[in-house]
Amino acid sequence: MNNKGFTLIELLVVIAIIGILSGIVITALGGAQTKAKDAKIQSEMGQLRSAAELYALSNNNTYGKGGLNGRDTLGCTDSAGMFQDPTLVKYISSILSNVKIGSTYVQCVTRPSGTTNATSWAVVALLPSSSVPTDEKWWCVDSSGYNGKVIYGVSGGPRWFKSGGGRESRKIECNPVTTS
What we know:
It is found in: Membrane. This protein is α+β, with helices and mostly antiparallel strands. The protein has one domain (8-174). 38% of the residues lie in helices and 19% in strands. The chain has helices at residues 8-58, 86-102; strands spanning 73-74, 106-112, 118-126, 138-142, 147-150, 161-164, 171-174. The strands form 2 sheets. The protein has a 5-stranded antiparallel β-sheet with strand order 1-2-3-4-5, covered by helices on one side. A two-stranded antiparallel ribbon has the order 6-7. A hairpin with a 4-residue loop joins strand 4 and strand 5. Helix 1 runs antiparallel to helix 2 (86-102).
């Protein structure tokens, strides 16, 4: 009798090999998905910066209402945070909500210059690939054109933003990661 086919052992070996290979592929794809989420947040934040700059070009290089009584405004809500002008809000609210969906933490700040109109701003978000909020996996965009990583600063708390200029020309911007 000439049996053609596979034995049970041969089938089990093939199934085991397929299982091992699929486990390796799934593990490798997990890192790719996290990197894709990071890239999406970085892209969305770049779009937010572009929308804000287009608005500023049409509005005397200001970003609309951005501060309460001349103080920094923290928080990313459309009504109580940065970019309160209704014209700008309709352009950036969907972008900002996409960033909030992708990141567990988003912080915004605007810096007015003696008026209710903000003259500078910055937005920072924790990237999904970060397992520890104090590492350097924070992304920041600002009105000066910066789009990149920022430092958290373990001692003394977060140091995402830095300010410069005199009292009349206060400016807020991202505090970039410097490599030594």
